[in-house]
Amino acid sequence: EAQVTQNPRYLITVTGKKLTVTCSQNMNHEYMSWYRQDPGLGLRQIYYSMNVEVTDKGDVPEGYKVSRKEKRNFPLILESPSPNQTSLYFCASSLQGFTEAFFGQGTRLTVV
Amino acid sequence: DQQVKQNSPSLSVQEGRISILNCDYTNSMFDYFLWYKKYPAEGPTFLISISSIKDKNEDGRFTVFLNKSAKHLSLHIVPSQPGDSAVYFCAAFNAGGTSYGKLTFGQGTILTVHP
To answer: Closest to A40 (Cβ–Cβ): which among B46, B105, B107?
Structure first.
């Protein structure tokens, strides 16, 4: 079954404690990206990757890091989380950025 | 600076009628436009897309219209069904220029279809 898998689904953490949200896809897609969803702001792109070892900033990259060492995985790293990073996060993959994207189930992150 | 805007936070229609969701954009470099639907507690799912070289694309009950001169696109759902009740996001992709590869979403419109 074609899918994008994010882990964990829910996470509560404290300010400053490094965390990683994993994302994996099984469709051999070139393009992967991370979004955060906040009330009234819709989905905002954090980072995207057009292929292995190729990553670029989206609209809200501050406070986040990513890596794309292999095609299937695209982890999101928060080196020092802060309360303003409390949000619902989605990972997505597609053949190319302008083609149909498949989204993960989301990760609800709370930073206290 | 919100480059993709959905100015209607919500829309309510009767079952069987037409739903029209609107989206405006400011960046003339956008080449592709997509619509996604999102149910609570799920990730968004793809609905339909359109290239900037077209002005209309249809897929079953869903039609997207693009007016490049007005920098406006709309999604028509005919006939609307209660199962269409969800949040709808439009998105625009920049296939050229310095922001190549970026996908920008609007704020979303909550559609409610009443039986």
So the answer is: B107
A86/A37 Cα distance (integer angstroms): 10
Residue B97: is its pLDDT beyond 90? no
At A21, the amino acid letter reads: V
> Shortest Cα distance from B70 to chain A (angstroms)?
21
**CB pair distance less than 8 Å for B49 and A102:** no
CA-based end-to-end distance of chain B: 38
A46-103 tens-digit pLDDT = 999 999 999 999 999 999 999 999 999 999 999 999 999 999 999 999 998 888 999 9
Cβ pair B93:A41 closer than 8 A: no
Please report which helix (H) or strand (E) contains residue B22, including its range.
strand B19-25
